[in-house]
Design brief:
The protein is an alpha/beta fold and 435 residues long. It has 2 domains: 204 residues, 3-Layer(aba) Sandwich (D-Maltodextrin-Binding Protein, domain 2), CATH 3.40.190.10; 186 residues, D-Maltodextrin-Binding Protein, domain 2. Helices cover 39% and strands 13% of the residues. The chain has 16 helices and 14 strands. The longest helix has 18 residues. It is globular and about 65 Å long. 52% of the residues are buried.
């Protein structure tokens, strides 16, 4: 088994992370905590790191506490992107001091006034080390509301023992998947491909929607899902199991296709760099390939997966109950999480691609084939992850409608129309632009 071992060339001293604070931006009366709220002195974090990313996070916590005596960090595993738990906690002044998650989840919370505009507390030089696209992913209307910890998205990952050359288009992909699929006594021994349309909450769907010529939103922010390209994309993905018989039916959990691919019984999946180290350790680096998702043969268009960052975001004191000292310490720890040292550890432990320019260029210089596949996908064939409040209203309707679709109770058109109707209704109720 081969693991990625990298010593990042650019290292910062933990105790030397400098945070420039401007206390005039704290809300009045918050120097000793928000009225009506009680708060511990420990920096609280909600995080949803993968199993391969988590060791880098806990190492960062230990190093930060060692370099900053008297400061402590506690964390809770909190799945995102559902905002309901955070909002409920924030309204009770019990939100975490730091939230780690996707930019769309955080973008909605920033829009609602729960997260800090870091541009108010830090000079522009604090954000200069990051690649511009990563900073753009945590910027809304000119305000930077988070520190990007990586750059990510999905690409096609393939087992080189089963797939010698990655397909260029979907016709080749399906033909190849059929040729390597083995079914015995009604059970899949080898699956040519696993997608699992009901397994990831809709995160990978926008790539294929774009490949069929569709989009998530109109320029004014209204959902644009009730369209023929959207129907075609969903039906295409469902056909993998129902028509082409190249994937097992009823794959409803990401862990299912992750485990099967790691066992060497799947030819192709669509996953991100956060899992690549798991596959490399299981199959060997020489047997794991990454390539851009194949062109949709019907349209000639590239699938465009959502490209974005997992970021570290700081709650405003009126959401977390923090006093000015704890708030400032939280800013400092959030900035440390996005340091070259920690981003290098995330790359070492999981294959996460750094968002800091120097560390990113160092990873590029290593010329690791499967990492190059991700870079090709992200920087040539992707779409920005919408970090707008509108995007937060996509996930729950998707889960409801796609479950019904997979169960066979509605067709693709009805599913996408249902998602759009629910999104519009919820956006109207919450006065989300343009409603």
């Amino acid at each position: 088994m081969v693991a990625i071992v990298v010593v990042v060339a650019v290292i910062v001293v933990v105790a030397g992370v400098i945070v420039y604070l401007n206390s005039q931006h704290l809300l009045p009366g918050q120097s000793k905590g928000t009225a009506g709220c009680s708060k511990s002195t420990s920096i609280s974090v909600w995080q949803d790191f993968s199993s391969t990313e988590f060791p880098a996070f806990t190492k960062a916590v230990s190093e930060y506490e060692a370099a900053n005596p008297g400061q402590s960090v506690t964390w809770t595993n909190e799945t995102t992107p559902s905002p309901s738990n955070y909002v409920a906690a924030a309204l009770a002044c019990q939100a975490p001091d730091i939230l780690i998650g996707a930019s769309d989840f955080a973008g909605g919370l920033y829009f609602d006034g729960f997260l800090a505009n870091l541009s108010h507390y830090l000079p522009s030089s604090a954000f200069a080390p990051f690649i511009s696209s990563a900073i753009s992913d945590v910027t809304q209307n000119g305000a930077i509301f988070g520190f990007p910890l990586n750059v990510n998205g999905v690409a096609m990952i393939y087992n080189k023992e089963l797939v010698k050359t990655p397909p260029n288009n979907t016709t080749q992909m399906i033909s190849l998947a059929k040729n390597i699929t083995v079914i015995s006594s009604g059970k899949f021994q080898i699956a040519g491909l696993i997608y699992g349309v009901d397994s990831d909450g809709g995160y990978r769907y926008p790539a294929w929607q774009a490949g069929f010529g569709g989009r998530l939103f109109n320029p004014n922010g209204t959902p644009d899902l009730a369209t023929e390209p959207s129907y075609q994309a969903l039906q295409f993905l469902d056909n993998f199991s129902t028509v082409y018989k190249i994937e097992p039916p009823d794959v409803t959990a990401e862990t299912t296709y992750e485990d099967l691919f790691a066992q060497g019984t799947v030819g192709m999946i669509f996953d991100g760099p956060w899992d690549i180290d798991m596959y490399v350790n299981a199959l060997g680096a020489a047997n794991v390939g990454v390539a851009p998702m194949p062109i949709v043969s019907q349209t000639g268009l590239h699938p465009l997966p959502l490209w974005g960052s997992i970021g570290a975001y700081v709650s405003l004191p009126n959401a977390s109950g923090a006093g000015s000292v704890l708030f400032n310490e939280s800013l400092k720890f959030a900035q440390f999480l996005a340091s070259p040292e920690v981003e290098g550890e995330l790359f070492n432990s999981s294959g996460d691609i750094p968002s800091i320019t120097t560390t990113f260029k160092y990873v590029q210089s290593l010329d690791i084939p499967f990492e190059n596949g991700f870079l090709d996908q992200f920087f040539n064939y992707s779409q920005p992850f919408p970090n707008t409040p509108q995007m937060t209203y996509f996930w729950d309707p998707w889960a409801t409608e796609i479950s019904d679709y997979v169960a066979g109770s509605i067709n693709a058109a009805a599913a996408m129309q249902g998602i759009q109707s629910q999104m519009i209704s919820e956006m109207q109720q919450n006065h989300i632009p343009p409603y």
